[in-house]
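Hi R.,

As promised on Friday, here is the backbone we talked about, encoded as structure tokens. Could you run it through your design pipeline when you get a chance and send me back a sequence?
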């Protein structure tokens, strides 16, 4: 195929790719393709993006408009050529001078012109009558996949495992109080979780805080909510910690808060089929229903320095914590001091995981929390 013929299609493909990328990122592409050879019947319009519930629907009209425009242009050219041939045939007929051979050729040329004209416009009329979409192509509709962002601490969080509180196991979906709430996991073995993942997912279990009790973590001086939600007990604690952090020129950034049961189940089911990842269920990720985040009293947070914007205490990466790259011992202990004064307890082996109301083991308060570098497990 000639390079000039390929060029318009290649450009349309490039523009289509850019449109999909930009639309998925939240922008509407305004720049339309520019053809090397202008065709009057081709008029490009903008890409449209419709925001749905968790997805985007992108309408890209350019390819359809290009094909439809070329088709309309070709029909018009065919009509012009047929008219020219009809005029030539008529002229030949008038000047044949009684020559039977010339008259026959003239009549044949006129007949061919009329047949061609009927074919061009007749085909267009028939296709339009049967289905207008056959000659006027609709936009290419692309629906993006619904996004679900999993933070690093959701994938690997040894502190997100509930042990029964001292003095008994709670049996309601009440918000967290002093002493925490015992959670009942909906599956406690790999096989039982696999069966659940392949079947019907439960919608509730004792010990998991009801989603209606979750509130957005606010953004205020010393605190960035980050789009996370939490129980009121956690929010109150973070608000107290934020005042202390702000006075020190620091800001607490929420990375992960309340996790409803559906999220906990999704985290476990995402590991199914990979033996190495399945082995982390119950340790690196809680059995669904047995989650401190689901019970409503855990939050994963970071500590940031206001003047430089530098993260002093990171979160979620056990390997980086063990290597000592998430925080210095001094900054980690400073974070412990702020959070302990606000009433939180830290999961001893994760410098980002704090809880308000939990009585689970392997928790600590300042100045007794082990600083990095250290592993995420091993209490």
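Update: got your reply. Pasting your designed sequence below so it's all in one thread:
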């Amino acid at each position: 195929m000639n390079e000039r013929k390929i060029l318009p299609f290649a450009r349309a493909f490039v523009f289509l790719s850019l449109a999909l990328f930009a639309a998925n990122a939240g922008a509407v592409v305004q720049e339309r393709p520019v053809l090397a050879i202008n065709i009057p019947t081709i008029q490009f319009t903008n890409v449209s993006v419709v925001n749905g519930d968790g997805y985007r629907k992108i309408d890209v009209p350019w390819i359809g408009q290009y094909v439809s425009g070329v088709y309309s242009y070709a029909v018009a050219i065919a009509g012009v050529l047929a008219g020219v041939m009809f005029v030539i045939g008529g002229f030949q007929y008038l000047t044949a001078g009684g020559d039977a051979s010339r008259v026959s050729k003239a009549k044949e040329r006129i007949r061919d012109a009329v047949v061609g004209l009927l074919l061009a416009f007749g085909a267009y009329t028939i296709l339009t009558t049967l289905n207008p979409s056959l000659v006027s192509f609709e936009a290419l509709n692309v629906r993006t996949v619904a996004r679900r962002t999993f933070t690093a601490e959701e994938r690997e969080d040894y502190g997100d495992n509930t042990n029964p509180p001292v003095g008994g196991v709670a049996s309601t979906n009440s918000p967290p109080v002093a002493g925490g709430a015992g959670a009942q996991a909906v599956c406690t073995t790999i096989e039982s979780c696999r069966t659940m993942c392949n079947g019907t997912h439960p919608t509730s279990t004792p010990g998991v805080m009801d989603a209606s009790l979750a509130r957005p973590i606010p953004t205020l001086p010393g605190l960035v909510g980050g789009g996370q939600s939490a129980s009121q007990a956690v929010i109150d604690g973070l608000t107290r910690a934020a005042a202390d952090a702000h006075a020190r020129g620091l800001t607490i950034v929420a990375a992960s808060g309340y996790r409803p049961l559906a999220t906990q189940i999704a985290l476990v089911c995402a590991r199914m089929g990979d033996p190495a990842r399945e082995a982390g269920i119950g340790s690196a990720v809680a059995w669904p229903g047995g989650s401190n985040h689901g019970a409503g009293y855990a939050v994963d947070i970071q500590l940031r320095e206001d003047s430089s914007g530098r993260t002093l205490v990171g979160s979620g990466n056990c390997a980086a914590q063990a290597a000592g790259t998430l925080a210095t011992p001094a900054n980690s202990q400073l974070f412990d001091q702020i959070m302990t004064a606000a009433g939180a307890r830290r999961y001893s082996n994760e410098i980002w995981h704090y809880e308000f109301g939990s009585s689970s083991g392997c928790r600590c308060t300042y100045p007794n929390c082990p600083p990095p570098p250290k592993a995420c497990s091993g209490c």
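One thing I noticed while checking it: The chain is about 40% helix and 10% strand.

Thanks again,
M.
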